[in-house]
Design brief:
The protein is built from 14 helices and no strands. It has one domain. The protein has 321 residues and is mainly α.
């Protein structure tokens, strides 16, 4: 039976896609300490939350019709946007615009990995979560020791982030509701604030570890990589739960945009890459940061409008407007 969507999850999606856009927008400006801290802070949780929510609504169907539907929903848009972004990057003069056909362009890795997570769920849903989740974590840890598992076909991210998808699949709405108690929400707010303060005081923590796209050897860790990734798993899980605890569960005027995050995710790269290539913004003070926030909200709102959905729906959902 399909789970009924509610305001809490749509609010969470909208908040996360806003963080995604803002994180991508501020990436070139990490010479400012506040933006460096913000970038790392965002990356500790924004994709884990997205992936957790995707798992929560996954059905785990294994029949041919369901798999074909997933392929149509995820792989065909991936191939289309892989082509479109390659042409677009060439047009705007982006360096390294011609990546290997096996390497997803920029944020498109999520579509490929999402399809793979659904496929991995077919065998994993037959395993009790008390065993399946640790097994998924072990595979994510092990993947880092294999140099051949990297950005190609988004294999590394598929294995590294799969535990969050699997946890989302097994978690119930009732279990999430427990997190809504006031003492837990206060603790969540304190944790998020403490993480921000720590990252501000120690800003040089390598963010590549949070991307999940490289082997331990490429990250310069070697044998200790598994321990570091396990620590990152724990931090990301706590940050993810803290965010979900604090997301409002009431219907708001902007809640409806949480249903349209796929469009924002796939299309915001056209803005971000143009801004990066042409050095559109100079950021040096608090007013500039406020300007980036306004630009972020503007991008999210524009790409969430109904006319934008009608324009791109035939290509993203393969449906008539």
């Amino acid at each position: 039976m399909e789970r009924k969507r509610d305001a809490h999850f749509d609010n969470a999606r909208l908040l996360m896609i806003t963080f995604v856009v803002f994180g991508h927008l501020i990436q070139p400006y990490q010479d400012m300490l506040f933006l460096q801290m913000s970038y790392t802070w965002i990356y500790t949780f924004h994709m884990p939350v997205f992936i957790f929510l995707a798992g929560f609504f996954a059905k785990g169907a294994a029949n041919r019709a369901a798999i074909e539907k997933l392929a149509k929903k995820l792989l065909l848009p991936f191939l289309f946007f892989q082509f479109i972004y390659t042409i677009y990057y060439f047009t705007i003069g982006k360096e390294n615009w011609l990546e290997s056909i096996l390497v997803p362009q920029w944020a498109l890795w999520f579509l490929l990995s999402l399809f793979c997570w659904h496929m991995l769920l077919i065998p994993f849903k037959k395993i009790k979560p008390a065993l399946g989740i640790p097994l998924a974590v072990f595979i994510g840890l092990l993947a880092g020791y294999i140099d051949e598992i990297g950005a190609a076909l988004s294999l590394s991210r598929t294995f590294v982030f799969f535990p969050f998808f699997l946890i989302g699949y097994w978690v119930t709405k009732e279990q999430l509701h427990v997190l809504r108690h006031t003492p837990i929400r206060i603790g969540a707010a304190v944790l998020l604030l403490a993480a921000a303060v720590m990252l501000y005081l120690y800003p040089d923590l390598p963010t590549d570890w949070l991307l999940g796209s490289k082997s331990y050897a490429m990250l310069g860790a070697g044998g200790s990589g598994g321990v570091i990734r396990l620590f990152i798993y724990l931090v990301s899980a706590l940050m993810m739960l803290s965010i979900l605890t604090l997301v409002p569960d009431k219907e708001m005027p902007f809640t409806k945009y949480g249903q349209r995050t796929l469009y924002v995710y796939l299309l915001h790269g056209f803005f971000i890459q143009w801004i990066r290539v042409d050095d559109v913004f100079e950021v040096s003070n608090g007013m500039d940061i406020a300007g980036l926030l306004i630009v972020t909200v503007g991008i999210v709102l524009v790409l969430s409008q109904r006319w934008m959905l009608r324009l791109w729906k035939p290509l993203i959902e393969l449906k008539s407007p």
